[in-house]
Amino acid sequence: MKYYLFIFFVFVFFSGNSLVVKSQTSVPSPASSGKVGEKFFEMRERANELTRVRQELNKPEERKPEETFPLIKKDFEQLQIINTEKLQKSSIGNSLNYKLVAKSSKEINNRAQTLKSTLFPAVASKKQTVEFPENLTPKDFMNIIIAIDNSVYHFVSNPIFQNTKVVIPEDSQNAEQELNKIIILSEILESNARKMK
Predict the structure, then answer these.
(1) Which alpha helices (H) appear in 29-137, and where do they start and end?
(2) Phi/psi at 48 (nearest 5 deg)?
(3) Which residues contact 135 (CB under 8 A, 6 or more apart)?
(4) What are 140-189's pLDDT values in tens digits?
(5) Half-sphere exposure of 106 toward its Cβ, with a 13 Å CA cutoff?
(6) How far is C-alpha 2 from the chain's CA centre?
(7) Taking the model in full, what pTM does it have?
(8) Using CA of residue 164, residue 166, residue 171, residue 177, what is the dihedral sign?
């Protein structure tokens, strides 16, 4: 009799523990598991979107050459011609033709401003303030004329003008920087040369 009672108590004890274990390890309800699944899906979608945006920012910028480059062709050519035929010739020898320096640097500035507004319209809308140095020495004039020549060369040699169908952002940025140099230096040159005429 005692043996049967012992077996009965053992059976009840283990049955109770198994019920407790089952109740403690609760299984998520279909509703709660659905919410978790939705949150996971949203997080994954956000991660995918961030990856896509990052790839869009880093990939080369495609554009149609017929939309932009015919508009800049004349200014692109004249920028080089004025620089070579007028500005650089104004500094041949030890003397400077200040009248020619003022005229040619103003023309270069106009061409560069037009190129900037066409190639980089978003940047062109921001007006740069430049403090003009006064009383340039002949050596200062010569150095600025050489610097403009270098910037014109680097600008027109930029890869964006070699392959007009695909533009690498870094090349575009370099072209913009050289164009800004041309604009600023030509303004300084023209402003000071007018005083020397």
Answers:
(1) 30-58, 65-82, 98-119, 121-124
(2) -65, -40
(3) 192
(4) 999 999 999 999 999 999 998 887 677 788 998 999 999 999 999 999 99
(5) 11
(6) 89
(7) 0.63
(8) positive
